[in-house]
């Protein structure tokens, strides 16, 4: 039997994709994926450093494994992703039972590292890290020169091999798939650790991307999401100096995959959005009219401190251009509240921006200084926690108002959805939305008019990324269907399946 591997993923879609690619390689080498650390010979955590909360969860998981490792010294424990890169080998001092440290820009090395950690009994050299079980520690982190450089030649991009190795088997669920188009980031927003953990921005060769999307479409993908930290900044310079822009790439993928019903992309950077890219969205009917485009603040002063490179006016102009080209466009954003020196006036500007743009939803975060960022060195975290909390709640309240109005306007409309699977709404949504109606089936009777005791409640997603609850069977997962919207709440739409 192959070695048994447990992997848990934290953070963004990029990490989800990294995990999928790593698992593809390891499965091909005979590793068997299991559902719990207790059943595993190898435990990997694919980590995120963007928020403190995600890091704390990993520290707690590693703490829990300390006793397990004492009972099972052959257990191999690996920390991969952004925390590995940010913490470096200092992590071994705090957690000596960890065997593997692999940054996100080095994941192509992971199969060899695992092999060495599990199999090799070679005597460690003086320079090797040795864990307390006597195994050689495996470390792959970005060279500091690479980390500081803002350019990386495509030929140096060894990580391309990880994406190229992607295999899609008939048993894989590829109905909604991710394809990376850029890696890393050169923006250096002052609060963000990503440029230091994922390294300089690299743009993948367009033909590699197109081939990957074709492969997924042929395997039955219904929706492909192109990924990049600043996805719309994509511009590939060919050896003959021709440039494939983001707009060019969208047109080429759209043309090459006529059977792919949905193409989308995240996350967009406001300053980089060209009219050509908006036109490509408008002209290609299978590109979803949806933009996740983080604003972060409505105050020019705060945007400058964040090093975002645009003003609130420029952001609003972009939204106006997008809406005038695609009146049905659906928008989502991110805000950080309580950034150092943020005043009530700055906060009011963020609320004004939210009201003006009428986002479908906003991901709102309280600022917390992250180790390794510019902001932690340059600015005092001077907005008191109660003010951060209140501003967070105020922004959330405005968003809920806007979302509820947006959703009410959807009632009666007929829209296409992709069925994502069974609803986890009762537990998750109830926490996030105080107005949420509990849908639990009580005593075999539906607690909500949309839920029958004989059917499952499913989660579906519109082309504009709105979540719709519909009744149906789990066998519908991955299908594109039409629904009529019958009801709404601030975070959710309710609908019924219709024939046309
Ligand atoms: S654009 Fe800014 S926030 Fe986004 S990954 Fe790059 S540095 Fe971080």
Q: Could you describe the 3D structure shown?
A:
The protein has 500 residues and is an alpha/beta fold. It has 3 domains: 4-141, Rossmann fold (3-Layer(aba) Sandwich), CATH 3.40.50.12160; 148-408, tm_1862 like domain (pyruvate-formate lyase- activating enzyme, Alpha-Beta Horseshoe); 414-498, no CATH class. 35% of the residues lie in helices and 21% in strands. It contains 17 helices and 21 strands. It has helices spanning 13-28, 52-71, 82-87, 90-94, 110-119, 144-148, 160-164, 194-197, 206-218, 246-256, 275-283, 300-305, 312-325, 344-357, 374-378, 385-408, 425-432, and strands at 4-9, 32-33, 42-47, 76-81, 100-102, 138-140, 176-180, 182-183, 202-203, 223-227, 235-237, 243-245, 262-266, 290-292, 330-337, 361-366, 414-422, 456-462, 467-472, 480-488, 493-498. It has a 6-stranded parallel sheet, with helices on both faces. A 5-stranded mixed beta barrel has the order 17-18-19-21-20. A 3-stranded parallel sheet has the order 7-10-13, with helices on both faces. Helix 10 runs parallel beside helix 11 (275-283) and helix 14 (344-357) runs parallel beside helix 16. It is globular and about 60 Å long. Bound molecules: iron/sulfur cluster. The site of iron/sulfur cluster has 10 residues, from helix 8.
